[in-house]
Amino acid sequence: METDDKTGTVTRRAAVAGALAAAPAMAWSHAAGDELAKLDATATAKAIADKHITAAEAVEGAIRRAEALQPKLNFLVAADFDRALDRAKRGQLSGPFAGVPFLVKDLDDYVGLPTRSGTRSTAGAKPATSQSAYMDCFDRAGLVVIGKSATPEYGYLPTTEPLAFGPTRNPWDPSRSPGGSSGGAASATAAHVVPFAHASDGGGSIRIPSSNCGLFGLKPSRKRMVKGDRAEDPIGISVMHCTARSVRDSAALFALTERQGADAVFAPVGHVTGPSKRRLRVGLVTKSAAGLPADPEVEALILAQAKLLRELGHQVVETAWPVDGGQFTHDFLLYWAAGAAKSAQEIGQALGHAPDATVLEPFSLGMAGMVVQAKPGELGAASQRLVQAVSAYAAWFKDLDVVLSPVLRTPPPVLGCQRRCGLPHPCGAPHRLCGLYAPAQCGGRPVHERAGGAGQGRAAGGGAVRRQGRRRAHPVRARLRA
Predict the structure, then answer these.
(1) What are 133-172's pLDDT values in tens digits?
(2) For the domain bounded by 282-479, which CATH number is listed?
(3) Which of 26, 58, 405, 473 is 20 to 30 A away from residue 442, measured at CA?
(4) Is 238 a catalytic residue?
(5) Taking the CB of residue 91, how many other CB atoms lie within 10 A of it?
(6) Which of 117, 205, 210, 383 is catalytic?
(7) Are 193 and 71 in contact (CB under 8 A)?
């Protein structure tokens, strides 16, 4: 135990660390009496601006929590504690979130930190010397990055269990998955290490972890946000935002990172500070596009949310995904696998031979193999059908304002999905888990998730999909806030 050299008493840092180490993962804030940890990013920034606390105190608190909970939850792959503290102590921070601690997902470059992308193939990566315009938004906002959060290999899986770093655990129940691919971000946010964290979403990578960890997660409309450094895929399914404990934090960061001026594809939303009074026509979906039902616990949760919406004056009507579920699932998985095939090819060129299981994980190799084994023209045809699905998806919203559905078919699964997702059927387990919301991936529409329950230590959530280019606060968000 750390003590003061002069008095021999236990220091505050050591006392907090000791209390955290002895406390259950989700009870640590009460055991340690860490009041700062209970604040969301907006409240933390205000406390700093009002001089109730300093930026250094906010950052040091986050570092203490990270040091205590990392051995239990494994959400961090690269720490930047010294540089973060130095930046906070210099007192030159400005912006709406000046001094608020933050994490960047380890799929994107951030100057001074290596990008490992959750894979053994990047071992020895050097710190990045440049970063995207999207990362610049975080710096201008005054956020203080304390490290990079864990992700599955190249962000492919809906669970964060990379062989390169080991499994990330769910703060509600460390035997269960926090989801993926923004699993490290969600675990750290839910455990109150940081108030919110950078995340990205192509196939559910913000919504799945937010659902599993009891958070608010929004996937914005395609092409609404400032560009990142990753090359956009042809359909553009991947979008960046955050995992958050409060809706207002998500809304504020959204306003700071959406495209402005000549670069804007849609009229900027701006900073949404409250719900609208408009009553909505809400489509309710409880089965997957393939007709598979949700787990009874999940279905009960989504029906309870639908009941709440009716009580708030919204019209709720039952509907179904407007696509052929079997064909869509095949096409999406093949399209998703094309990214793995490209990565495997690039790694093979660098190595001088095809990567094997010592370099890439079984799931990644299995997906790359799907593309190799595909018939000539099959990938192109699949991509074209996905584009057509976008049109069907758009037509669906001519009669609906919002579609409400479970995010996942089941509560958070126990860790070990990685071991069940290898060859020869690499996509079976993720499909069974994520099959409910899958058509939302290619629609380009904004999708948000709000956890509605945490029975038996397990969080689960419902998602609402809106028309592309529209994202205004509404009673769904306001009344489902924790």
Answers:
(1) 999 999 999 999 999 999 999 999 999 999 999 999 999 9
(2) 3.90.1300.10
(3) 473
(4) no
(5) 11
(6) 205
(7) no
* Range list for CATH 3.90.1300.10 in the chain: 12-263, 282-479
- Over residues 90-118, the mean pLDDT reads 97
pLDDT band at 220 (very low <50, low <70, confident <90, very high): very high
Give the active site residue among 105, 148, 219, 287: 105
Spot the catalytic one: 177, 181, 221, 364.
181
**pLDDT tier, 67 (very low <50, low <70, confident <90, very high otherwise):** very high
Q: Confirm whether 177 is a catalytic residue.
A: no
pLDDT at 346: 96
Give the span between the Cα atoms of 401 and 393, in whole angstroms.
Answer: 13
Pick the CATH number of 12-263 from 3.40.50.720, 3.40.50.920, 3.90.1300.10, 3.30.1360.20: 3.90.1300.10
Q: What is the pLDDT of residue 409?
A: 87
- Dig out the tokens for 138 from the structure: 């975080």
pTM of the model: 0.88
User: What Rg do the C-alpha atoms of the chain give, in angstroms?
Assistant: 22
All residues at 6 or more sequence positions from 480 whose CB lies less than 8 Å from its CB, including other chains: 305, 308, 450, 452
Helix (H, G, I), strand (E, B) or coil at 230: coil
Is 343 noted as a catalytic residue in this protein? no
